[in-house]
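Query structure, 532 tokens:
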């Protein structure tokens, strides 16, 4: 099969090769100059081919490792430069009025790679859902299952200034990281999600955030106040509506504290928010510079179909909608990515982020020569995992012909102990290999869950929970093992088997693994299962 990028190149060559050759068969008379309309059409055709080729190259940037061994991004630099150059060439042919300020830069290319991952992750998570609220629920559930919660009171060394791609690749983040990622995933689906926060009258620029909310127009017309459907990132659930049905709105929880009390775990562990606390709220809207950039907006307008990326934000339109909400006292611009990027370049967090990336950069070792070979398997698997690219030939419609490449690469990242030989004597490399194996084992469990292979998911997640050196995946493994039992219960046809599996899930949520007590999201889920 010829890829779209290859096809584009062939068509591009045809413009310059076939045209002149065709002219050789004509008489020696002076050719008629092509009309301006024809020239414009030819430029637009070529521009769209180049743009499509550049979009294909963007999709392929997951083949290049971020950072190399020293996190200096040397291995991605050339690929990003070529991609940006192709996009600029295509855009220039489509818009003759472009200036130097409209030129995409190499740094832009790296940001675009991040946004491609967000787009692909969102598409995978949403699947074939079309209803806006249903899509938001799927995006939030994907975020909670895939992003292990870093507690708010964790040591500062763990609460690093993650960018969205860090959160995706590392699979960990604080509740704020979850809320932010959910907002950005929703944006790629054309959904407006804001972060609700308590207004601080003493410091208007620093409100205290509470939870993300999907903003939907009122059913009776766009001139009415919008609805805010609430999602709780600490508890990892949409806030249940009346009688436990649907996703509660801000109007509902502000008028009925019983809806928030449903999130209480027990008398000693109540949900920390009350309806009375929701009188002075503001909406935080992610307005980092990439979404305010005119050149990104122009690129967004030029892309379409499967290449479409959301690279801009109608700030005025969204602000006008939000201001119709009586529960809000204001709208605050929230350029978190700009703040995080600056913080991530400081030496201490930069070095810590570099250290976290090292297992992803570990290449396979030839056991005979001791030399490293090929692409790092963990990186190769992980970036495909977060993008939902589980199969090697994603365009193949026949399931029998698709190859599950992601499992193969995760398994390569789990070398057998007997195969490591002399590498065990190299303490530093041994540590990286050990971390690489732990990551791969955990993520194989998550892939199996997504594919509906629940027995396989259970096997890998139990390996993590039974290993005292599991490289930090106990909270996520416990939560996802419980979710696996819940999924099996939902699929069971026998009521007794459904009850047994639900009880098993509740027991896992409550159980202490390796001296780690259950967290709020597990305890609340256990309570919900017991109540059911």
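Result returned for the query:
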């Amino acid at each position: 099969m010829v890829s779209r990028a290859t096809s584009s190149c062939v068509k591009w060559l045809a413009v310059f090769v076939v045209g002149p050759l065709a002219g050789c068969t004509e008489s020696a008379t002076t050719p008629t100059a092509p009309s301006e309309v024809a020239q414009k059409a030819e430029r637009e055709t070529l521009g769209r081919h180049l743009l499509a080729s550049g979009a294909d190259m963007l999709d392929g940037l997951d083949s290049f490792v971020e950072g190399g061994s020293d996190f200096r991004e040397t291995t991605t630099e050339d690929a990003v430069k070529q991609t940006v150059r192709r996009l600029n060439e295509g855009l220039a042919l489509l818009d003759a009025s472009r200036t130097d300020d409209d030129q995409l830069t190499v740094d832009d290319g790296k940001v675009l790679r991040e946004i491609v991952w967000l787009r692909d992750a969102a598409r995978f998570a949403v699947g074939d859902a079309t209803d806006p609220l249903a899509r938001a629920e799927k995006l939030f559930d994907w975020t909670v299952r895939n992003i292990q919660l870093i507690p708010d009171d964790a040591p500062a060394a763990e609460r690093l200034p993650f960018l969205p791609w860090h959160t995706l690749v590392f699979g960990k983040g604080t509740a704020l990281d979850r809320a932010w990622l959910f907002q950005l995933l929703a944006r790629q689906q054309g959904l407006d999600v804001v972060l609700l926060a308590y207004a601080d009258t003493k410091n208007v620029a620093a409100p205290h955030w509470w939870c993300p909310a999907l903003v939907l127009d009122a059913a009776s017309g766009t001139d009415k106040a919008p609805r805010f459907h609430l999602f709780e990132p600490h508890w990892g659930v949409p806030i249940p509506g009346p009688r436990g049905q649907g996703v509660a709105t801000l109007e509902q929880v502000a008028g009925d504290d019983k809806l928030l009390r449903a999130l209480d775990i027990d008398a000693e562990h109540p949900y920390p928010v009350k309806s009375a606390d929701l009188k002075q709220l503001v909406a935080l809207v992610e307005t980092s510079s990439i979404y305010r950039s005119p050149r990104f907006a122009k690129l967004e307008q030029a892309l379409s179909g499967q290449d479409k990326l959301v690279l801009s934000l109608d700030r005025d339109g969204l602000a006008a909608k939000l201001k119709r909400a009586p529960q809000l006292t204001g709208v605050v611009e929230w350029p978190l990515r700009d703040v995080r990027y600056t913080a991530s370049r400081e030496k201490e967090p930069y070095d810590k982020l570099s250290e976290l990336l090292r297992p992803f950069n570990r290449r396979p070792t030839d056991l005979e020569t001791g030399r490293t070979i090929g692409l790092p398997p963990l990186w190769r698997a992980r970036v495909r995992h977060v993008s939902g690219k589980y199969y090697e030939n994603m365009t193949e419609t026949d399931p029998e012909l698709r190859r599950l490449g992601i499992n193969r690469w995760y398994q390569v990242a789990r070398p057998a102990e007997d195969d490591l030989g002399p590498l065990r004597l190299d303490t530093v490399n041994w540590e990286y290999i050990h971390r690489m194996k732990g990551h791969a084992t955990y993520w194989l469990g998550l892939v199996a869950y997504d594919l509906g292979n629940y027995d396989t998911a259970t096997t890998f997640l139990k390996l993590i929970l039974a290993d005292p050196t599991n490289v930090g995946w106990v909270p996520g493994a416990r939560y996802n093992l419980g979710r696996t039992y819940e999924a099996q219960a939902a699929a069971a046809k026998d009521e007794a088997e459904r009850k047994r599996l639900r009880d098993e899930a509740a027991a896992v949520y409550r159980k202490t693994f390796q001296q780690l007590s259950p967290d709020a999201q597990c305890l609340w889920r256990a309570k919900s299962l017991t109540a059911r």
